[in-house]
């Protein structure tokens, strides 16, 4: 009996020793074990183990060890694995309707909520408050700790901080930090946010929330093409939310799709016709399309709701300037100046009013010089400085029109307005060869103005390219013989390429069928063909008879009497030139010099 007990003890000891060894040192592969088993099936050690197993199976149930079955672990387990997955997906999609439905789906009595469910409800509420502020949270939100990546990221976002320490373990932990785009106006680490949003889209490419945030990011990066792509996707699945509609409409507007933008805004106005942001966007679009009356209506509706909105007060002044309603524009500019007289838009509008309405070029120059000083990189300020310099033929902030034009063209080589400023400056400074090179480029463009043709003909004459002047002038004149400016170009070129007799015959043939203004010009040109001074003066007087404000004729009379040393008569005509062209700095300087000479 004792021996049997000892044998049983030995066998049992051996059995458990072998089991422990196999558990702690599993160092053979299945294939190798199979080979070894087949080879060693009859070894004494194995026989001992087999006998021990058989005897162990015969032990009564009271002696058998208790077996514990461990729960299976879900694949891709996340913080919200135990929460209703349909509710989680709704929160990830992120529309206001989805957020409300998710809260409804997991609704239960307060004591039955798990901590994970409470966190998901808190996340949903913060998405609603931060991303969709026009919507209201309609479910109960519980106090939760921040010992999880979701609440921690949200708390950082509310402080304007990008917190990427959440680990990007799932969609929500990746997208939540990007809300900093909506909570901080000064945030600029767009590349880090872009990577987080792209990762979110990898998790869920159809998420309205992720596509909306991508659209917001690209708008801030001024990549409106990409912004439109993502916002269009969000809009198609969430047309009823104003934040999505406004962002998508703005992207369309920035991409020049004004009519498509209006369609989106009109759909929004059906549910909220007084929405301020919608009215603002409609005002901008109407202004861009030069529908100034419509733009003024929208701006007025905005100011009715927010009378202290200085930016739209200034925008209304801008509309009046475009409508040439300078009285109302000046009143609004004066009101704005009481709050801020250093704003760039204000300075530019003030300078335009001073230049175009008051004709106060010195004041306009001073205003634009202030703008240049405060905003030296402003392209609009540079263009306006070039325009004033070209009109006044004088320095603005130490530079002539052609110099301002050159600066503007370095920024945007395709800007025709800047090229025209540069050309005008070169003409004023009589830099004819450079003027020809620039004019020759401009004359080959698709859209050529009659003024540019006139300038090019004059420049060709100055550089001795008279045949080119005649060819261009004649070609353009034949296209439109009723154009007075093209007629002038043609007559000028004809005079330079034909003898006096032929030129006189051309002019005489045009006089009877010309308007009074054109007759004044023709008499002016004919004065250069006359052989005696009396005939010259007779033609000039005839020119003034038909147009007393012909500044070219008046200036020629000034030159004749100045040459005669009849300074009083010379100043009489020169003062009229100054009155007609108050912005002509050269004429004013000549008049001042003549005044000193007479004294």
Describe the structure.
Helix content is about 70%, strand content about 0%. The protein is an all-alpha fold and about 600 residues long. The radius of gyration is 43 Å and the shape is elongated. Mean pLDDT is about 85; it is low at about 1-45 and about 60-75.
Let me know the average pLDDT: 86
Strand content: under 5%
Q: What is the overall silhouette?
A: elongated
Structural class, from secondary structure content? Answer: mainly alpha
Tally of DSSP β-strands: 0
Please describe the biggest sheet, giving its number of strands, its sense, and whether it closes into a barrel.
none
Rg over CA atoms = 43 Å
Question: In whole angstroms, how far apart are the ends?
Answer: 152 Å
Low-pLDDT runs: 1-46, 59-74
Tally of helical runs: 33
Q: What fraction, in percent, of the residue positions are helical?
A: 55-70%
Task: Write a concise keyword list for the protein shown above.
single chain; 599 residues; mainly alpha; 33 helices; 0% strand; disordered N terminus
In short:
This protein has helices at residues 2-24, 30-39, 44-57, 85-93, 96-105, 115-131, 149-158, 171-175, 180-183, 190-203, 208-220, 224-236, 242-254, 258-269, 276-288, 292-305, 310-322, 326-337, 344-356, 361-374, 379-392, 401-411, 416-428, 432-442, 450-462, 466-479, 484-497, 500-511, 516-527, 533-546, 551-563, 567-580, 585-598.
Task: Outline the secondary-structure elements.
Elements: H1 2-24, H2 30-39, H3 44-57, H4 85-93, H5 96-105, H6 115-131, H7 149-158, H8 171-175, H9 180-183, H10 190-203, H11 208-220, H12 224-236, H13 242-254, H14 258-269, H15 276-288, H16 292-305, H17 310-322, H18 326-337, H19 344-356, H20 361-374, H21 379-392, H22 401-411, H23 416-428, H24 432-442, H25 450-462, H26 466-479, H27 484-497, H28 500-511, H29 516-527, H30 533-546, H31 551-563, H32 567-580, H33 585-598
Helix pairs in contact: 1-3, 4-5, 5-6, 10-11, 11-12, 11-13, 12-13, 13-14, 13-15, 14-15, 15-16, 16-17, 17-18, 17-19, 18-19, 19-20, 19-21, 20-21, 21-22, 21-23, 22-23, 23-24, 24-25, 25-26, 25-27, 26-27, 27-29, 28-29, 29-30, 30-31, 31-32, 32-33
């Amino acid at each position: 009996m004792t021996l049997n007990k000892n044998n049983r003890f030995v066998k049992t000891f051996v059995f458990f020793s072998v089991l422990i060894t196999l558990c702690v040192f599993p160092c053979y592969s299945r294939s190798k074990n199979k080979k070894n088993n087949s080879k060693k099936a009859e070894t004494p050690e194995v026989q001992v183990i087999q006998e021990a197993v058989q005897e162990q199976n015969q032990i009564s149930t009271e002696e058998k060890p208790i077996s514990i079955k461990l729960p299976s672990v879900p694949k891709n387990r996340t913080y919200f694995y135990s929460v209703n997955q349909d509710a989680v997906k709704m929160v990830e999609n992120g529309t206001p309707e989805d957020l409300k439905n998710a809260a409804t789906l997991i609704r239960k009595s307060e004591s039955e909520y798990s901590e994970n469910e409470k966190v998901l409800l808190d996340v949903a509420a913060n998405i609603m408050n931060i991303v969709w502020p026009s919507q209201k949270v309609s479910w109960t939100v519980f106090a939760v700790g921040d010992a999880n990546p979701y609440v921690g990221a949200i708390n950082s976002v509310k402080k304007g901080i990008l917190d990427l320490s959440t680990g990007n373990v799932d969609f929500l932990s990746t997208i939540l930090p990007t809300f900093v785009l909506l909570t901080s106006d000064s945030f600029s680490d767009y590349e880090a946010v872009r990577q987080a949003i792209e990762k979110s889209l990898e998790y869920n490419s159809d998420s309205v929330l992720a596509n909306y945030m991508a659209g917001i990011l690209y708008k801030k990066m001024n990549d409106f093409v990409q912004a439109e792509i993502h916002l269009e996707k969000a809009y198609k699945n969430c047309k009823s939310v104003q934040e999505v509609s406004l962002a998508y409409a703005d992207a369309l507007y920035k991409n020049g799709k004004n009519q498509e933008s209006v369609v989106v805004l009109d759909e929004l106005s059906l549910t909220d016709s007084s929405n301020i942001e919608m009215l603002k966007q409609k005002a901008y679009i109407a202004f861009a399309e030069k529908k100034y009356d419509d733009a003024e209506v929208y701006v007025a509706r905005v100011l009715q709701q927010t009378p202290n909105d200085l930016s739209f007060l200034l925008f209304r002044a801008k509309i009046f300037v475009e409508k040439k309603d300078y009285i109302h524009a000046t009143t609004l500019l004066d009101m704005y100046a009481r709050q801020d007289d250093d704003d760039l838009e204000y300075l530019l509008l003030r300078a335009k009013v001073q230049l175009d309405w008051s004709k106060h070029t010195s004041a306009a120059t001073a205003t634009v010089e202030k703008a240049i000083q405060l905003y030296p990189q402003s392209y609009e300020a540079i263009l306006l400085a070039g325009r004033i310099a070209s009109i006044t033929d004088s320095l603005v902030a130490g530079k002539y029109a052609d110099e301002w034009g050159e600066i503007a063209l370095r920024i945007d080589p395709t800007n025709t307005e800047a090229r025209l400023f540069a050309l005008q400056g070169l003409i004023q400074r009589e830099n004819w060869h450079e003027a020809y090179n620039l004019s020759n480029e401009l004359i080959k463009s698709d859209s050529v103005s009659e003024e540019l043709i006139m300038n090019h003909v004059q420049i060709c004459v100055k550089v001795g390219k008279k045949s080119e002047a005649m060819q261009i002038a004649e070609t353009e004149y034949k296209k439109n013989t009723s154009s007075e400016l093209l007629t002038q170009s043609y007559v000028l070129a004809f005079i330079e390429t034909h003898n006096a007799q032929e030129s006189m015959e051309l002019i005489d043939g045009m006089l009877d069928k010309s308007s009074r203004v054109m007759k004044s010009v023709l008499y002016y040109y004919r004065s250069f063909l006359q052989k005696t001074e009396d005939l010259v003066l007779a033609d000039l007087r005839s020119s003034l008879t038909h147009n007393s404000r012909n500044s070219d004729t008046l200036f020629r009379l000034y030159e004749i009497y100045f040459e005669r040393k009849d300074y009083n008569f010379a100043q009489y005509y020169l003062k009229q030139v100054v009155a007609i062209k108050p912005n002509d700095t050269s004429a004013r300087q000549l008049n001042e010099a003549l005044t000193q000479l007479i004294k």
